[in-house]
Design brief:
It is built from three helices and seven strands; from the N terminus they run H-E-E-H-E-E-E-E-H-E. It is α/β, with parallel strands linked by helices. It has a single domain (about 25-200), classed as Double Stranded RNA Binding Domain. It has a seven-stranded mixed sheet, with helices on one face. Strand 2, helix 2 (about 65-75) and strand 3 (about 80) form a beta-alpha-beta unit. The longest helix is centred in the N-terminal third of the chain and has 19 residues, at about 5-20. It is globular. Pfam families: DUF4136. This is DUF4136 domain-containing protein. Keywords: Signal.
């Protein structure tokens, strides 16, 4: 039978052990949903402007990792990404919101106007780089949405949304890593099955 001193030591160490477990870095799979128009197959993969979506905060560097990640993925798919011009445009949104204990998402902390876009309301408020509070054990949902339009007609050719949850002390939480994770999953197997939601590890 443990001695009184041993029992006291175990009792005192338990909260610290639980705290250590609770603060372990964690990142979940990426959930993606994509829609594509029939006319996407007819559209050449030529010059495409990669821009921040209308209504998003254009100032500062918060969106740059997401723009860069989308640009790399589109180039790998055979597009010619440019800052302006082109026959198509890729509009990028990104945002973060803390996940509550019941699994629901708190409204994103927004530094932009936000809003909805496309056929399934994929708009998210930008909250990149903002301290949401709660310490290193807080779990945050990071999302990115991309809409590809015909530059002249403004017809939506393709759109997708990707999101994943991670603790704020995980490597994937860092903005550039988060952007790479989201863009890689979003454009994997492009254009994907229209209307299908899948998880990518």
């Amino acid at each position: 039978m443990p001695s009184t001193i041993t029992r006291i030591a175990l009792a005192l160490s338990a909260p610290f052990a639980l705290a250590a477990c609770a603060s372990a870095p964690w990142a979940g799979p990426t959930e993606i949903t994509r829609f594509s128009a029939q006319t996407l197959d007819e559209a050449p993969r030529g010059r495409i402007a990669v821009t921040i979506a209308p209504g998003e905060e254009a100032g500062g560097l918060a969106m740059q990792p997401y723009i860069d990640a989308v640009t790399r993925e589109l180039a790998a798919l055979g597009y010619d990404p440019v800052a302006t011009g082109g026959s198509q445009v890729a509009e990028v949104r990104a945002g973060r919101g803390a996940l509550l204990a019941d699994g629901s998402r708190r409204s994103p902390v927004s530094v932009g106007v936000g809003g909805s876009t496309g056929t399934y309301g994929s708009g998210v408020g930008v909250g990149i780089g903002i301290n949401l509070g709660g310490g290193p054990r807080e779990t945050v949902d990071t999302s990115m949405a991309v809409v590809i339009r015909d530059m002249d007609t403004r017809e939506v050719l393709w759109e997708g949304r990707a999101s994943f949850a991670a603790t704020t002390n995980a490597d994937e939480y860092e903005a550039r890593n988060a952007a790479d994770k989201l863009a890689s999953a979003l454009f994997a197997g492009f254009p994907g099955n229209s209307g299908e939601t899948i998880e990518v590890e």
